[in-house]
Amino acid sequence: MKVNIPIPPIYVEMAKSSEEKGELLRVLVDGYVRRNIPGCKFIRIKKMIAECVITPQKK
After folding, report:
1. What pLDDT sits at residue 59?
2. I need a surface site. Which of 11, 20, 37, 40 has the fewest CB within 10 A?
3. In terms of residue numbers, what domain contains 41?
4. In a domain, 59, yes or no
């Protein structure tokens, strides 16, 4: 199932100072999604929304 997760503004601010803004933002958002949403896999950023896929958890 696809889900869209808003990117916290602080992540955008942290990435601004880097020469590789896009790559750093992707790394930060991927870590945010992994820590905060179990079973969710980050796919891409589109219009400051993280597009993700949630996989069913095995019991």
Report:
1. 67
2. 20
3. 2-54
4. no
How many domains would you assign to the chain? Answer: 1
CA angle centred on 51, ends 47 and 57, rounded to 5°: 165
Rounded to a whole number of angstroms, the CA Rg of the chain reads 12
- Give pLDDT, residue 26: 94
Q: What is the DSSP string of 1-56?
A: -EEEEEPPHHHHHHHHTSSSHHHHHHHHHHHHHHHHSTTEEEEEEETTEEEEEEPP
pLDDT digits (tens, 9 = 90+) for 32-46: 999 998 889 999 999
